[in-house]
Amino acid sequence: MNSSPKNNFSSPSTEDLKFLTDASLARLAKWLRILGFDTTVYPQEAGRPMLRIADQEKRIVLTRRQDMTERQFAGTLFLITDVVVGKQLKSVIEKFSLKIDRERMFRICLECNEALKPVMREEVRDLVPPYVFENCEQYNRCSRCGKIYWMGTHPRNALRFMERHIPNHLP
Ligand SMILES: [Zn+2]
Q: What's the predicted TM-score (pTM) here?
């Protein structure tokens, strides 16, 4: 069967972009996870070992350290100049033309960057507050840390934050 090469060599989707932030950008990392982007945080000061990890894992480096831009690095490095996390998020979205898809939001554990898995309501009966159990049908669990997520105040607040800071990028 002949397949058209143009379909095989299209540029990779922005959905597949992965990020590595330095420790000072941990809050930005959480926002990228909320949006569904695989984002790890380098726990120490940014430097050569951080770039090595980014290279190995094919991650885009996000850093606040100006001098990192002078280092030799074959991958992509983006200097974050804003201090406000909402502006940081906006700058990353615009720099990499990230497409925000509501289907992909709230699918990654905010603590450990692990993909969440749906879990039966009965299984979380003793793990969530009773009023949550009464009012919520769908739950996800992190298979690494065990944290349970549900659609509640956190996603509502998160959506409000996004409407404030990145209104033009919401689907
Ligand atoms: Zn977790």
A: 0.87
Distance 27 CA to ligand 1 centre (A): 16
CA of 32 to the centre of ligand 1 (A): 15
Same domain? 102 vs 27: yes
Instruction: Tell me the residue range of the domain where 131 lies.
Output: 112-150
The pLDDT tens digits of the residues spanning 51-106 come to 999 999 999 999 999 999 888 899 999 999 999 999 999 999 999 999 999 889 99
Closest-CA residue to 84 (of 142, 153, 166): 166
Mean pLDDT of 138-156: 90
8 in any annotated domain: no
Ligand 1: distance of its center to the CA of 152 in Å?
18
- The answer to whether 91 and 79 are in contact (CB under 8 A) is no
